[in-house]
Amino acid sequence: MKFAALLMTAAFSLAAVPAAAQQSPTIDEEPIATSQEAPQGLSGAVTDESEWQDLEIAIPGFATNANVSTAANDAGTAALGRDIARVITADLQNNGLFRPTGPDSLPQPSFGDITSPAYSVWDGRKAEMLVQGYVRKNDDDSLTVGCYLYDVLLKQPVEKAGWRLPPSDWRRAAHKCADMVFSRLTGENPFFDSRIAYIAETGPKDNRRKRLAIMDSDGANHRFLTSGNATALSPRYSPDYKQILYLSYLDGNPRIYIYDIASGTQKLIAQSENPTFAPRWSPDGRWVLYSMAVAGNTDIYRVSADGGESVRLTSSPGIDVGGSFSPDGKQIVFESDRSGSQQIYVMDADGSDQRRISFFGGRAATPEWSPRGDQIAFTHISGNFRIATMSPNGKNMRHLTNSWQDEAPTWAPNGRIIQFFRTQRNSGETSIWQVDLTGRNERRLTTPVDGSDPAWGPIRD
């Protein structure tokens, strides 16, 4: 009951729950978004993550006012309600903070129970928190999904939200519900309703076909964006989530493109006959960093997101690569072998004040700044390749994984989860994985083919 004690002393600003589920707020625009103010979370900080480990959350199937057919599935709104609850359960299970129980092990509430929970049922199951909801088909074939969070111990409502959406977007409602629960209970920013870009790989390890692909944060709704006729590498979402920056090799010549997700069109930003690597956005979306090798020396350059002349930011002998801006845009972290081996350096955004920050042995590569600004994730190479984090001053280095070859970390929008790709020894097969900041909760994302170079996009509107 650790969480109960925390909850009793925390100040909640509760939203009033409507008397009937039909009055739940709806969202008409696309993309969907919550109609309420952002959740405020608990007042006060929880510094020991173990406080959350025994928080039991019951997530029964979402109810429906009438079990009718829907374009969202083949079995009707009742089955869809259970699927929504399963997605919420998986989201909350895989972040490492809670102990959710999903609909397959719980009684199904009625439609009338959604705004008036049978607390005695959940008390008997030792649930501390309860997530209930409903799904209703509208006359225009759209769906309305309502989501309610209750405190079983205090027998009080905590938060609510609702969305009106096309049937094809039902999973987004589930992710939005999980985000609401996560944010309300932790006070942290959400991250489930987001997408991931990555490089889909097929073929033998010495002749890989690499395509640009995107999927939801849990691996669902997978889609290839490029054909594979030109090798695609190093994708990164734009800050406004509307575009993907990536590197393409067509006829052996590298080109940096910006791919517009809505239209499927792309524009050329930079091209060269010289080897080019790792394009990255600035936080304001105005600039693109990339690395280019000229006469055996690799340096970091900056170019406008509209194209034009490039500005060189580094000029030391050796290989400077992999620039990543700090969230405020004032600094850039990158890797360089100017000291004799791959290490992590930081410089100001204009290229001044370049200084090494990694002094813990082994090599260090592929750094990426956390969206919170408090940590840098990177690949630590000391025997195996492991995902690690450190403070921006190079202190407090921690390993999060311990496999043979894990590399290229990318942060979740809230800075709590890190994705990376793992290469299997001997076979060369690659796959997308994620791990939370405790290092205890590791998970593989299912992809239709091998995957590398993941890039986690910002939370969707």
Q: Indicate the percent of residues in helices.
A: 10-25%
> Which band does the percent of strand residues land in?
35-45%
What can be said about the biggest beta sheet?
A: 5 strands, mixed
- Characterize the overall form: globular
Average of the residue pLDDT scores: 87
Through-space gap between termini: 35 Å
Radius of gyration: 23 Å
| Alpha-beta content class | mainly beta
Q: How are the elements arranged and paired?
A:
Elements: H1 2-9, E1 56-58, H2 77-93, E2 99-101, H3 119-124, E3 129-137, E4 143-151, E5 156-165, H4 170-186, E6 195-202, E7 209-216, E8 223-224, E9 231-237, E10 243-250, E11 253-260, E12 266-271, E13 276-281, E14 287-294, E15 297-304, E16 311-312, E17 320-325, E18 331-336, E19 343-348, E20 355-356, E21 363-369, E22 376-382, E23 384-390, E24 398-399, E25 406-411, E26 417-423, E27 430-436, E28 442-444, E29 450-456
Parallel strand pairs: 1-2, 1-3
Antiparallel strand pairs: 3-4, 4-5, 6-7, 6-29, 7-8, 9-10, 10-11, 11-12, 13-14, 14-15, 15-16, 17-18, 18-19, 19-20, 21-22, 22-23, 23-24, 25-26, 26-27, 27-28
Helix pairs in contact: 2-4
